[in-house]
C-alpha cells in the first residue's frame, strides 16, 4: 500500500499552511484567476487542500501554480487530473488547455482531453482525438486511447458508441493485443453486440491465434451461453501444453465459467512447478473436491524428498485443508528456512488451535512475539493471528487484550491498528474504529487503505457525509481506478442523496470487480430509484458470490427485497 511518511518538518509546513490558507484562499466566483502567483506558495496551498480532501480547491491552486510556472507542464497535468476527479469540467478544461500549450504532443495530455470531451458529451471531438492517438506512430498510442474510453466514463453506452465508430473508421491498430483490449472494454461496458463484432473482426485478422478463442469464450460467457464458451475452450485445450501463460489463461477462463475443477485439470497439463501445484490446490479447494486434492497431495509428497521450503509449505497447507492436522504440523515444522519458514511457523500455531490444543497454540504465538531473534514482521503477525484465533473462539476480551499487548510492543503499528479498527466496527463501536484509523493517518497521512476505510465507515455508519467524501477523495487521488475506492465514492454520493451520480460510480466499481458488497450497493441504489427488477438481479448476483455478506444482508433488510 503506497504511503508517504511526513517528517516533523512536513507537519510544521502543514500547520503553517493551515494558518495562512484563509489568506491564500482560491478566488471567489467572478474574481480573476489570472493574477500572478508565487509558484511555491500556490503549490503548497494546492497540496494542503489535497491533503484535506478538498479536490476543487486543490485543482484551482495547482492551476494557479501552473500559470505562474511558465515552462512546467507537470503542474498543469496535476491540476487537470485532480479537476477530473473532482468532476469540475470547467476547471479541468482550463487546466487541459494550459497543459496542451506546455506539452502539445503528450499522449497523457491527449488522453485526458479525450476523457474530458467524452464527459462533456462532445463525442465527435473526442472521436477525432482518439483516432489521432490510435494512428500515432508511438506504439503506446492505443493504450492511451483505451484509457480515455474506459476510465471514469459517465455513460458507458456513449463510450461504446464512440468505440464502434472508431472500428468503422479502421482506426484500431492491426495488433492482436490492442483488439483484445478493446474487446474486453466492450464487455465491461456490457455491450455484447459490439463485443461480438470485435471478436468476429479479430478472428478474421488473426485466425490461428488461440487467444482469439479465449476472447470468444469470454464473450460467450458474458452473454450467458456457458455451453458454447465451454466448447470454445475445449477446442484449444491442447494449446495449454505449449505455453505456461496460455495454460494459465485457459484455466482462468474455466474458473470464470464457474468450473474450477476444469481449471485445475488444465493446470495439471504440462510440466509442474510450485506455482502450478499451488494454483491447482487453490482451485480444488474452491471446488471442494477433496478426492482430487488428495491426488495432488500424494503427487507433491512423492517429490518432496529434498527439503524444498516452498513444496513443504504447500504440503502443509494441503494437509491442513484436508484436515490431516498432524501431517500438516509435521510439514510446517520441517520447512527449513526463508520466507516460507516464517509463514510455516505461524500456520503451525493455527493447526495446533484446530487440533484443540489452544493453550499450546497461544503459548507458541507468545513465544514468537517475545523472541528477539525472530524478524519484526513475524512477531507483529503473531499478534494478528492470536487476535484472529480469539475471535474464532468468541473470546472478545482476549481478542481485545491481544491487540493491546501488540500495540504496547509496536506503538502505532498500522496493521495492528487497522485490524483493531475492524474489530471495533464489527462490534458497532464506530468511535473507537475511527480513532484507530485516525492514528494510522497521523503516522501515514496518505495510507490509502486507512483513508478509504475511514471514509467508507463514516459514510456507511454515520451522517458525517461531507467529511467522508473528503477522505475518500484523498484516496481517489492516489488510486482513482481501485474498485473498492470507486465503490466508497459511489456509496457516499448515495448517502448524500446524489443517486444518479452514485449509480454511475457503483456500476463502474462493479465492472472493475464483481464483489458482493459492491453488488449490494448497486442494488440498493437501483431499488431507491424505483428500478426494482434490476435491483433484484444485482441482489441475486451478490447472493451467488457470498450469501452471508453483511452489507448484502443489511441492504436486503433495508429494502425489503428478501421478503
UniProtKB/TrEMBL annotation:
Q: Which InterPro entries match?
A: CellSynth/LPSAsmb/PSIAsmb (IPR051012), TPR-like_helical_dom_sf (IPR011990), TPR_rpt (IPR019734)
Entry-linked SUPFAM superfamilies = TPR-like
Q: Where is the signal peptide?
A: 1-25
Keyword Signal (UniProt) = yes
Q: Which UniProt keywords apply?
A: Repeat, Signal, TPR repeat
Gene3D superfamilies with a match to the protein in the record? Tetratricopeptide repeat domain (1.25.40.10)
Instruction: Tell me the superkingdom of the source.
Output: Bacteria
Task: Spell out the residue ranges that the record assigns to TPR repeats.
Answer: 516-549
Q: Which Pfam families match?
A: TPR_16, TPR_8
Task: Write down what this protein is called.
Answer: Tetratricopeptide repeat protein
Q: Which organism is it from?
A: Luteimonas salinilitoris
Cite the source lineage.
Answer: Bacteria, Pseudomonadati, Pseudomonadota, Gammaproteobacteria, Lysobacterales
Amino acid at each position: 500500500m503506497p504511503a508517504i511518511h511526513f517528517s516533523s518538518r512536513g507537519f510544521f509546513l502543514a500547520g503553517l499552511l493551515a494558518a495562512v490558507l484563509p489568506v491564500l484562499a482560491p478566488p471567489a466566483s467572478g474574481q480573476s484567476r489570472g493574477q500572478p502567483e508565487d509558484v511555491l506558495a500556490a503549490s503548497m496551498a494546492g497540496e494542503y487542500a489535497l491533503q484535506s480532501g478538498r479536490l476543487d480547491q486543490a485543482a484551482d491552486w495547482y492551476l494557479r501554480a501552473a500559470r505562474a510556472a511558465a515552462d512546467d507542464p507537470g503542474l498543469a497535468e496535476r491540476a487537470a487530473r485532480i479537476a477530473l476527479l473532482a468532476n469540475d469540467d470547467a476547471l479541468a478544461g482550463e487546466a487541459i488547455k494550459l497543459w496542451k500549450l506546455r506539452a502539445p504532443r503528450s499522449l497523457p495530455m491527449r488522453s485526458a482531453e479525450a476523457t474530458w470531451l467524452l464527459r462533456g458529451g462532445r463525442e465527435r471531438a473526442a472521436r477525432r482525438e482518439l483516432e489521432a492517438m490510435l494512428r500515432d506512430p508511438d506504439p503506446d498510442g492505443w493504450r492511451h486511447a483505451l484509457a480515455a474510453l474506459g476510465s471514469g466514463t459517465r455513460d458507458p453506452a456513449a463510450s461504446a458508441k464512440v468505440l464502434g465508430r472508431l472500428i468503422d473508421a479502421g482506426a484500431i491498430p492491426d495488433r492482436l493485443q490492442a483488439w483484445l483490449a478493446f474487446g474486453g472494454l466492450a464487455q465491461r461496458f456490457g455491450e455484447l453486440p459490439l463485443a461480438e463484432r470485435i471478436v468476429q473482426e479479430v478472428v478474421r485478422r488473426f485466425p490461428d491465434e488461440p487467444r482469439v478463442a479465449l476472447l470468444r469464450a469470454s464473450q460467450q460467457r458474458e452473454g450467458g451461453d456457458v455451453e458454447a464458451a465451454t466448447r470454445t475452450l475445449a477446442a484449444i485445450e491442447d494449446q495449454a501444453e505449449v505455453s505456461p501463460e496460455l495454460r494459465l489463461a485457459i484455466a482462468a477462463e474455466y474458473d470464470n465459467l464457474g468450473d474450477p475443477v476444469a481449471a485445475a485439470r488444465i493446470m495439471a497439463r504440462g510440466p509442474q512447478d510450485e506455482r502450478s501445484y499451488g494454483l491447482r490446490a487453490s482451485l480444488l479447494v474452491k471446488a471442494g473436491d477433496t478426492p482430487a486434492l488428495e491426488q495432488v497431495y500424494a503427487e507433491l509428497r512423492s517429490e518432496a524428498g529434498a527439503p524444498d521450503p516452498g513444496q513443504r509449505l504447500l504440503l502443509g497447507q494441503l494437509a491442513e485443508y484436508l484436515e490431516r492436522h498432524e501431517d500438516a504440523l509435521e510439514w510446517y515444522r520441517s520447512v527449513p528456512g526463508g520466507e516460507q519458514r516464517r509463514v510455516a511457523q505461524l500456520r503451525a500455531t493455527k493447526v495446533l488451535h484446530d487440533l484443540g490444543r489452544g493453550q499450546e497454540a497461544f503459548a507458541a504465538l507468545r513465544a514468537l512475539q517475545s523472541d528477539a531473534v525472530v524478524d519484526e514482521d513475524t512477531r507483529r503477525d503473531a499478534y494478528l493471528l492470536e487476535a484472529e484465533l480469539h475471535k474464532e473462539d468468541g473470546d472478545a476480551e482476549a481478542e481485545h487484550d491481544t491487540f493491546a499487548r501488540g500495540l504496547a510492543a509496536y506503538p502505532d503499528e498500522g496493521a495492528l491498528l487497522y485490524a483493531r479498527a475492524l474489530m471495533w466496527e464489527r462490534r458497532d463501536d464506530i468511535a473507537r474504529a475511527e480513532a484507530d484509523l485516525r492514528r494510522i493517518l497521523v503516522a501515514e497521512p496518505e495510507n490509502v487503505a486507512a483513508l478509504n476505510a475511514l471514509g467508507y465507515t463514516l459514510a456507511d455508519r454515520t451522517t458525517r457525509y461531507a467529511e467522508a467524501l473528503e477522505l475518500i477523495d484523498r484516496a481517489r487521488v492516489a488510486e482513482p481506478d481501485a474498485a473498492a475506492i470507486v465503490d466508497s465514492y459511489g456509496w457516499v454520493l448515495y448517502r448524500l442523496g446524489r443517486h444518479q451520480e452514485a449509480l454511475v460510480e457503483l456500476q463502474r466499481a462493479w465492472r472493475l470487480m464483481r464483489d458482493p458488497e459492491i453488488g449490494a450497493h448497486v442494488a440498493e441504489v437501483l431499488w431507491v430509484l424505483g428500478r426494482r427488477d434490476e435491483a433484484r438481479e444485482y441482489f441475486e448476483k451478490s447472493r451467488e458470490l457470498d450469501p452471508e455478506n453483511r452489507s448484502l444482508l443489511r441492504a436486503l433488510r433495508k429494502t425489503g427485497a428478501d421478503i
